[in-house]
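This follows on from our talk about sequence and fold. I would like you to pick a protein and set down its sequence and fold. Go ahead and set the record down below:
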Amino acid sequence: MAKVQCHCNQLTRPARRRQVCAHASALQQLSSPSPQLLGVVVALAALAIAVKRVLDRPSRTYDADDPNVGRAYDDWTREGILEYYWGDHIHLGYYTDAERAAGYKRKDFKQAKRDFVDEMLRFSSAQRPKRILDVGCGVGGTSRILAAKFSEASVTGITLSPEQAARATNLAKEQGINNCTFKVVDALNMTFEEESFDLVWACESGEHMPDKEKYVKEMLRMLAPGGHIAIATWCQRDLQPGQQFTEKEKGQLQFLYDEWAHPFFISKEEYGRILEASGKAQQVHLEDWTPQTVPTWRHSNWVGVWDPWIVVFKGPIIWYKTIREIIMIERMHRAFSQGLMEYGMIRAQKPQGQSSSDRSEAGKQTPQYA
């Protein structure tokens, strides 16, 4: 095989100088991007900053003078995307230890919601309730499950959203469930007869209440003596005396408040204190179900990845709103995973023989949690 000889050294000195200059010029061009390229980079950076600022600005801040919770749920119901992905249960799901160990994505996302209802019913300690009030019923998924389980009971679901109440009613008719009704009622000012329910069920409605104490007391007012109250709610971490949230945590919480029309959160311990201080609750019991429920957040986003088409065909406005929801869901996942938030489960029983007008010294006692 013939050898290839290099003739570089045979170049004359001026030729070598020209070659070196050419190489240096080429290197300079590579290391010095063109003004056009710099312009593109700057434009993309500015766009990224602008998009981040938009996404960091909450879109549904709670308005105490003009509460917008009902309107937000009206919008979600009309769009149909939330129901498409989450089914007729707009609450977190339940994942057992074994299911989490095997990988939460293996579980049917909507089945996780139905499992949560079963677990919450067991948690409630209610035995064969005859009159059930579902506070914050959404599109009625839980109400219909309870109505089917307790066929001799009457179930009433309430919501601030007329669209949800109408959808819940239609779904009940489609499913042939006749022992549940749905009404547009303010949970802070209920119009039912006092003590007319023996199970008051509140799943993820307390988050939207601007007065948590009135919320709890109003549910107790509806509860018959001997009846049970069960609350499932997103809670912020309880603070010991002298403790405060860091500035970073305050910012995280404020975004969680503002993006989904929440006035504020409280801790599950504070719910317990409110129940105890009411003088109308006994056997108050608290649990943290964060491990069992936190997979829901990322599972929700994965469900959208596997089946994106309903969003794809909705157009740019829905694309933008969906991006916001994905980011919010991830923020929720991190807040719960990092201990800033907890999934609070609270139950209690109204003492037998005590009417809503009774006054008790129990409210002056130090809270004791079973």
Q: What stands out?
A: Residues 89 and 141 are 5 Å apart (CA to CA).
